[in-house]
């Protein structure tokens, strides 16, 4: 029975990690920006959800659309005001800019909410489905379902809608897309806004499950990076694949005899190196918009 | 071959974007008009010297003793860092309010110079160096945490400046043969022991215990000591596991723990780590429906954050504390009793003191009495006076063994009952009964 519980834990955590990396993957894939401020957006999402819960009594899951809308606006503004200015500059410039943004946002969050650890306790937190010795917590299940749903929705949006196709086209060839009449700056703002909104969703779900403090943004940027490299760019499903592989290192590996949880980061990064050697595009990566 | 070439050499058009050209341009501009550059450097020099004067000023003003401390005000241990800072600040405020420290025939006021080390031990060490060399502090107070203390004590030793630290309890700090480090805390081995003793004092004590620990040196030292003590007392240690320090998810560890006691949940769960991991453990025990009879954490329950972030789920949790306001010490210092310290602290900062604050204040007191005893502010003489110090304070006895550790002070076990921290062990200082067993999460 232990093995079933471990597999369930793994699927739940892996899907949650997909949500963490989804926005990061989109921005990297379409705009070729490694957005180091991704963790900061997750942080803002987490604190927005925390604030809404404590002040307005809005459940973090029900308030998810609100959090995403807020983050979308934030992402849009950041893109329009800052990122657009360096979008044609060398890679390092966007790296520096987003790094600076990360510090700025994290410090503002810390000023507003102090560095105390925050956590949300809903009425249903900790309850779950019990099947024999198997236990599936509701909040984790819900978070995992939403993560998969977001992945599917993003995939459909990119493939089936005109705007989505325009985003993909811009990712494939910026100049050709412009010649076809696509307004690149707006597409970029939309993409970055979407990326931030997805980060916000991840943050809102994380704050429900784990205690949160303003120093944690960087942790999640790093994880998103590893997950995207593992899963591959080019499709939202890459984030899910990467998330599941990364979750493997945190849930299954600690139970293997003789290894223990002390090595989970080492194993996650070793997997990353392995994937880079065997399949540099990542598990599901396509040479589509990378 | 062409691929290799294009891999190694950036196309020429790329250079325009890297800013190389503009750098050259600005340099040649500067060369053409030397006046602004000269003016700029003059201004710069002026600013620097003002800065230096300001630093020198605080240190050299004759009747003020400057104490320096790098403290984690941001980063992973920011909460504990702030409590540490408040402890130091309260001591400084009270010393000055009581007329300063009389050393020989001179009376000194006290000032504190601190920097934020961002919870990074490396940064902490750099700041310690800066405090000694640039700020010219007279003495050093410790940073927050064992890892930072291990770094900083080496710097203190090199410059032969005594450091009294209040927030690093690992044996490693005191086993390096250093002579300028003193710690007011009870050592790491006591942290888990006092909680296990509390559990064993129950009419029907827990039989099986699972121990999980972060993999930093302090936490592991506590965990090993706990394992050995539990075994020596006839408790069965059914699970012992370390996890990476600062882990955000512990479901893997907890899932294995859930069935570790012969297929069932162990009677007692003992966590040795940090506050964030203690909160995570409790949250995930609830999520995974792990119902132990007793939860105990070495660090966490004593900090106010623990109760606020867990809400009712924090109830019944045991913690170990270096100090609680309920203890009955009668100190020779101006705080006198723990209760009085609590009162003054609340007046000053508007919230309850935690043990981190109390031990930090105690570090200040150690210096205060050592300075009085030494009758000199010479670092060497103060160090010798610290080594001989034996005083009773509101915080308990402060007396250092040959290595600099305060092995003479007992610890206390606390429990969270209805959102309040109460002392449950040892019996002599307890103000409440230990509630046992903990009801399952579903029945709270």
Can you characterise this structure?
Chain A is mainly α and 290 residues long. The N and C termini of chain A lie far apart (42 Å). Chain A is globular and about 60 Å long. A two-stranded antiparallel ribbon of chain A has the order 1-2. Chain A has eleven helices and two strands; from the N terminus they run ααααββααααααα. Chain A has a single domain (2-278), classed as ABC transporter involved in vitamin B12 uptake, BtuC, CATH 1.10.3470. Chain B has two domains: 61-186 and 327-399, Response regulator (Rossmann fold), CATH 3.40.50.2300; 189-321 and 412-443, 3-Layer(aba) Sandwich (Rossmann fold), CATH 3.40.50.2300. Chain B has helices spanning 2-8, 12-18, 20-32, 34-60, 78-97, 121-133, 146-159, 171-174, 189-200, 217-232, 251-258, 275-287, 304-310, 338-349, 355-374, 379-388, and strands spanning 64-71, 101-103, 106-116, 139-141, 163-165, 181-183, 208-214, 236-243, 268-272, 294-297, 318-321, 390-393, 396-399, 412-417, 420-425. Chain B is globular, with a radius of gyration of 26 Å. Residues 1-39 and 42-61 of chain B have low confidence and may be disordered. Chain A binds chain B through residues 1-2, 5-6, 9, 13, 88-90, 110, 115-119, 121, 125-128, 130, 133, 135, 137, 139-140, 209-211, 213-216, 219, 250-255, 260-262, 264-265, and chain B through 14, 17-18, 73-76, 78-79, 82, 119, 215, 241-244, 247-253, 255-256, 258-259, 275-276, 279-280, 283, 286-289, 305, 308-313, 441-442.
List keywords for this structure.
heterodimer, A: 290 residues, mainly alpha, ABC transporter involved in vitamin B12 uptake, BtuC, 11 helices, globular, B: 444 residues, Rossmann fold, 46% helix, disordered N terminus
């Amino acid at each position: 029975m232990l093995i079933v519980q471990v597999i369930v834990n793994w699927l739940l955590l892996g899907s949650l990690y997909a949500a963490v990396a989804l926005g990061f993957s989109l921005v990297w894939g379409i705009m070729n920006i490694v957005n180091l401020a991704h963790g900061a957006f997750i942080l803002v999402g987490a604190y927005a959800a925390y604030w809404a819960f404590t002040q307005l009594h809005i459940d973090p899951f029900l308030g998810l659309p609100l959090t995403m809308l807020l983050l979308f606006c934030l992402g849009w503004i950041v893109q329009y005001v800052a990122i657009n200015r360096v979008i044609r500059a060398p890679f390092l410039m966007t790296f520096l800019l987003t790094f600076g943004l990360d510090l700025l946002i994290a410090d503002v969050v810390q000023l507003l909410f102090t560095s105390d650890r925050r956590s949300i306790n809903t009425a249903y937190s900790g309850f779950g489905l019990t099947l024999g010795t198997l236990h599936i917590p509701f909040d984790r299940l819900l978070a995992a379902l939403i993560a998969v749903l977001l992945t599917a929705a993003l995939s459909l949006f990119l493939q089936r809608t005109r705007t989505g196709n325009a985003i993909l086209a811009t990712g494939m060839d910026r100049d050709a897309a412009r010649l076809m009449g696509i307004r690149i700056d707006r597409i970029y703002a939309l993409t970055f806004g979407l990326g931030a909104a997805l980060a916000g969703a991840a943050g809102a779900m994380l704050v429900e499950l784990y205690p949160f403090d303003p120093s944690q943004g960087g942790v999640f940027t790093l994880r998103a990076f590893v997950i995207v490299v593992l899963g591959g760019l080019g499709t939202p499903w890459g984030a899910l694949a990467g998330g599941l592989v990364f979750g493997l290192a945190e849930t299954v590996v600690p139970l293997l005899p003789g290894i223990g949880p002390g090595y989970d980061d080492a194993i996650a990064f070793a997997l990353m190196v392995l994937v880079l050697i065997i399949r540099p595009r990542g598990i599901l990566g396509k040479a589509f918009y990378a | 071959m062409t691929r290799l070439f294009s891999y190694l050499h950036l196309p020429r058009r790329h250079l325009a974007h890297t800013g190389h050209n503009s750098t050259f341009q600005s340099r040649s501009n500067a060369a053409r008009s030397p006046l602004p550059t000269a003016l700029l450097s003059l201004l710069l020099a002026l600013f620097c010297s003002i800065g230096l004067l300001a630093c020198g000023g605080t240190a050299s003003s004759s009747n003020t003793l400057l104490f320096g401390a790098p403290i984690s005000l941001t980063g992973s241990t920011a909460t504990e860092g702030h409590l540490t800072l408040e402890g130091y600040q309260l001591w400084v405020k009270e010393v000055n309010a009581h007329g300063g420290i009389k050393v020989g025939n001179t009376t000194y006021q006290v000032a504190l110079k601190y920097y934020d080390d961002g919870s990074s031990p490396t940064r902490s060490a750099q700041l310690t160096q800066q405090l000694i060399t640039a700020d010219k502090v007279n003495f050093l107070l410790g940073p927050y945490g064992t890892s930072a203390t291990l770094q900083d004590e080496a710097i203190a030793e090199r410059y032969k400046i005594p450091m009294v630290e209040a927030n690093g309890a690992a044996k490693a700090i005191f086993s390096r043969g250093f002579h300028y480090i003193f710690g007011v805390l009870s050592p790491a081995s006591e942290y888990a022991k006092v909680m296990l003793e509390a559990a064993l004092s129950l009419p029907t004590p827990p039989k099986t215990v699972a121990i999980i620990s972060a993999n930093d040196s302090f936490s592991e030292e506590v965990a090993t000591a706990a394992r050995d003590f539990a075994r020596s007392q006839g408790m069965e240690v059914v699970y012992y596991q370390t996890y990476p320090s600062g882990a955000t998810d512990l479901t893997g560890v907890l899932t294995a723990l859930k069935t570790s006691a012969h297929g069932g949940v162990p009677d007692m769960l003992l966590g040795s780590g940090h506050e964030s991991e203690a909160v995570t453990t409790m949250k995930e025990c609830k999520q995974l429906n792990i119902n132990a009879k007793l939860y105990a954490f070495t660090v966490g329950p004593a900090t106010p954050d623990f109760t606020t972030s867990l809400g009712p789920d924090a109830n019944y949790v045991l913690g170990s504390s270096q100090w609680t306001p309920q203890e009955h010490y009668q100190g020779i210092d101006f705080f006198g009793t723990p209760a009085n310290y609590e009162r003054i602290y609340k007046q000053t900062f508007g919230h309850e003191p935690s043990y981190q604050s109390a031990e930090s204040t105690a570090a200040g007191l150690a210096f205060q009495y050592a300075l009085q005893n030494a009758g000199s502010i010479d670092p060497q003489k103060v160090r010798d006076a610290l080594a001989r110090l034996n005083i009773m304070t509101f915080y308990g006895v402060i007396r250092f063994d040959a290595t600099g550790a305060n092995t003479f002070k007992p610890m206390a076990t606390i429990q969270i009952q209805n959102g309040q921290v109460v002392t449950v062990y040892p019996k002599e200082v307890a103000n409440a009964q230990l509630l046992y067993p903990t009801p399952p999460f579903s029945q709270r």
